[in-house]
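Re: the 164-residue chain
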Amino acid sequence: MKKLLLIAVSLTLVSAMSFAQQTNATATQGLNLTVLQVYKLAATGTVPALTISDGTAGTNALSVVSDASTSYSITHNNAANAKISAQLNTALTTGYVLKVKLASTKGTSSGDVDISGATAQNVVTAIGPGADASQVITYTFDALASSGALASTARTVTMTLTAN
C-alpha cells in the first residue's frame, strides 16, 4: 500500500511539472540599434533695429550700439568637437562694422567677431558633445562719421554648427 501511494504521488508530481512546463513559452528577437550624428542649432528672439544716433565731437567713430536680447541653443553628439560659424548674407560697406559674440558653456567663445565682410567666421570653437542651452548672442554695430549716413538696411546672419 505504501508502494502504491508513493507511485501515485510521484505520478501526480510528474504530471504537475509537465503541465507547468507546457504553459510557459518564450520567444526572442534580434535587433540593431543606431544613433546617427546629430547637429541641432536654434536661435530665439528677434534682434531689434541697431540704430546709431550719436557721436562725440572731434572723433570719427560714432557711438556704438549693441543688443544682447537673443539667445541660441545647441545639441550635438559627435565624439569630436564642433564649432559655430556666423556669416552675414551681404557685406557692409567700408566704415560700417557688425560684430557678433556668442556666449558658451560647452565651448570657447571667440569674443566679438567682425562679420561685416560676409564670409563665415568661427564664433565658438571646441564645443564638446552634449547640449548648451539659452546662450546669449550679442550684436555690436559701429560706424565712422566719414562713411556717412546709412539708410535702414536689412541683413541676415546665418549661424552654422558643424564638426571642427
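The radius of gyration is 33 Å.
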